[in-house]
User: What shape does this take?
Amino acid sequence: MLAAVAIGFHLSSGNGRDKPVVNAADQTFTGSTISEKNIGSSGTIAIPGFNQITMKAGQTAQRVELYNPKQNTCYMVITIMLPDKTQLYKSGMLEPGKVINTIELSRKLEAGTYKGAILRYSCYALENMKELNGAETIFTLEVKP
Assistant: This one.
């Protein structure tokens, strides 16, 4: 089962992703951080987190920058959910170092602020697809007209 808040998270230094990231006019990420989660004897998994993500209202296609950090030794499946756990998006298996630049939401969002939105990271071993520890990070989803 995925842990909502993982014990042992700590901010990673020198990763190049610990400063805010700003994309195109219809998508912004603020307060980007990477935390590491212990996965046992095989090491740690770097988990990206954001304080806020901004999307466009009334459309399902969104520009994003979701990624599996290159230092990871696992696949990631990234899920975006509203605070009530309504799933808006779920990626396929993302290899280490790969970035998702555009996504298709399951529904159009109305303009507003959704505090407590969730980014869920499900992690799988590269060699045998065995499920590893994962994490959920909380962010504010700002949907602008």
Observations:
- The longest strand covers residues 112-125.
